[in-house]
Fold:
Amino acid sequence: MAGVLLLALASAGAAPDRSLEAGGLSVAVRDLSSGRADQSATVRDVPSGGPGQSATGHSPRAGDRELPAEARGLWGDGAEVVRGVRSVVVGQHAAPESLRDLARRADTAGSRVSAVLGRPVRPVVLVPGSAAEAARVAGVGSVDGLAAVADGGRVVVVPENFARLTPTGRDIVLTHELTHVAAGTKRLPVWLYEGFADYVGYRDAGLPVRVAAAELAAEVRAGRLPSELPGSAAFAPSTREPVRLARAYQEAWLACRFIAARFGEGTLVRLYRDAQTGGIDQGLTRLGLSAGTLTARWRDYVRDQLA
Ligand SMILES: [Zn+2]
Structure:
């Protein structure tokens, strides 16, 4: 697991469609501790079928040998397994209804990622019993303020925080993290892998760009355009500037969204793969771009989309 933490927050009430992915630890801490999320997050678990029925009607119990490798050896008798159409969800002492809901969402996330990558994606989602167990399973020191973490072939849900998201927020988080899992992040600039994960996450989420990129839109309306693509420092979860962190995700998202809009989604995917094998500069060269020309055209796009 490498720098692929994400939090999605949601606010509802007066503006029920506003579901923003804040994209950072500091934002998470601020908003979760302010009580705003408590009041605003909409939790919707849709029970269906009776206890002991999986999303597809098969037995929820399965021997470890029948599970994907990423889901084996967890929680002994406390593990509950629910299979979706293309997903496997393993919970620790979790309510079957919430696991079935997650399996449906993981199926949706899987089909969204698959549609972009052009190959089957089979999500493995783990639902530990607590944030502390999520941190242990993911091998990270803390998951404070995070809704889910991408970790070695699987998405690990942080149950307390995930439960506070709106349905739209849950789908975006699962899709974002699953994109990291399926597409990989190694050898890539952070703006490309975070922007790509948000590109896939928001692609079918139905949120207007000015809503999803609210913090960046405020900057643009104030006459301030970002000068360069966000570097790794801008994504550091220890940043004390949570709004800046949110903007970093939004800037990266719009860079990928620009490439898909201008050159086509297939070209964005090819750039991602080219950058993994030959580096980002070589990938951009195939598009007739340099880091400088991409930056200039991305700035124009940000202004056009958000002004
Ligand atoms: Zn991410």
